[in-house]
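Treating backbone geometry as a discrete language has practical consequences that deserve illustration. In the encoding step, the backbone of a single protein was reduced to a row of integers, each denoting a local shape. The amino acid sequence and the backbone structure tokens for this protein are reproduced below.
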Amino acid sequence: MSKLIPQSLLNSLPDLYETEDIKDPICHIKLFTPDANWTWYIIELSKADATTCFGYVQGLESELGYFSLEELESIRGSLGVAVERDLSFKPTSLSKIKEDERE
């Protein structure tokens, strides 16, 4: 069970590899560090372990990749603030996230 994301929301995410043939997948959840410049957009979540995610990461570089909710729960920014979920984030296409990043 994740401290960052309610179980009901986790259950609604596509399983790993479920969207791999979709050209422009949906980013369902946005996680971020309030005191650092890192953001994670979750596209898929492993139903097997409920911690492994696939999504878009904006940090030192921006890239698609895998990350762990357990690891994100242990991260603290430079001021000691934990990773948070953006409660106002609405599911958005990956292309829109990338477009907004360029602006």
About this structure: The helical segments are 7-12, 69-74, 94-102.
